[in-house]
User: Which sequence fits this backbone?
């Protein structure tokens, strides 16, 4: 855990503030790669993940952007309540949304606050002079953040802005996604509906799953408890210990209650922190971290939200 101070808080758009964080002891921050995020601990056990959006070479600050979500469970409200001089704890950066090395071409799609990791990717690709295009979509000019920064950047000519209230600027996904060639990679981040649309259009245009990369900010409906959830059993391969998982508890909750150490962060199947190998049984995947192909292998699952289709799962724990 790292103690950091909010050195700058800036309104970037309607409902969006950026926060610049620096270590309280003045030591340089850990380096990070484009697409990385940090965990921010906001007290009372509240932990949220925010993508880093400053240039990856910077070590004097981390910058994040936070949208005040009307349906907030407390995270964005707590962040927006912070002021310059506030001290919070964060994790070191982790990257679960990394750029593919040696890509022939990269297409970046951002919806709303999903621009935060995408912006960092654009900075990095521009720095190494790699071919890419950025498509940034929002409801209106007033609702999207970091516009001035994009317009003044070295990649301004490769950035395309699309607004719902300006029909002439709306995204033509068919045209943007045409011409796939082996070695092309696509990255998308934003609201669930926006991401589902971009990914589906890419598949229709012939993009293979291995070239599609996404990062979610919120859980899908199936990630939460469902009325017909039943109980099942998990067994630890190392000791043979078995635990019953009732319908109203997750695997992670049951394991933690029984003293089994399990890394957790988002607890919504988004970040992949708790990804665990499955040796026997068939998981009921409810995460958004793995691709459909990875889920189909049934050799790992996210115990924070996923369940079991079989009476027992044997875990590599």
Assistant:
């Amino acid at each position: 855990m790292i103690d950091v101070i909010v050195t700058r808080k800036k309104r970037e758009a309607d409902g969006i503030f950026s926060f610049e964080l620096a270590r309280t002891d003045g030591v340089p921050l850990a380096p990070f790669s484009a697409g990385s995020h940090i965990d921010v601990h906001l007290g009372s056990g509240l932990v949220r993940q925010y993508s880093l959006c400053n240039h990856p070479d910077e070590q004097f600050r981390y910058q994040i952007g936070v949208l005040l979500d009307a349906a907030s469970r407390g995270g964005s409200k707590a962040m927006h309540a912070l002021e310059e001089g506030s001290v919070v704890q964060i994790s070191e950066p982790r990257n679960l949304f990394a750029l593919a090395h040696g890509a022939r071409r990269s297409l970046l799609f951002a919806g709303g606050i999903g621009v935060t990791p995408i912006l960092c990717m654009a900075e990095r690709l521009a720095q190494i002079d790699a071919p890419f295009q950025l498509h940034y979509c929002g409801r209106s000019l007033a609702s999207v953040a970091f516009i001035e920064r994009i317009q003044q950047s070295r990649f301004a000519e490769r950035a395309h802005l699309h607004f719902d209230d300006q029909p002439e600027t709306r995204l033509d996904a068919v045209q943007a996604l045409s011409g796939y060639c082996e070695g092309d990679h696509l990255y998308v981040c934003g609201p669930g509906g926006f991401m589902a649309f971009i990914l589906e259009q890419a598949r229709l245009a012939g993009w293979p799953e291995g070239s599609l990369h996404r990062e979610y900010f919120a859980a899908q409906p199936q990630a939460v408890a469902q009325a017909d959830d039943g109980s099942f059993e998990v067994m630890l391969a190392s000791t043979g210990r078995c635990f019953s998982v009732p319908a109203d508890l997750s695997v992670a909750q049951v394991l933690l209650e029984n003293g089994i150490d399990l890394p957790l962060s988002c607890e919504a199947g988004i970040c992949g922190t708790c990804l665990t190998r499955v040796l026997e049984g068939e998981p009921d995947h409810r995460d958004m971290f793995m691709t459909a192909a990875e889920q189909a292998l049934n050799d790992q699952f996210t115990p924070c939200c996923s369940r079991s289709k079989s009476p027992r799962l044997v875990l590599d724990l």
Remarks:
- Residues 71 and 77 are 10 Å apart (CA to CA).
- The chain has three domains: 2-90, 105-215, 222-315.
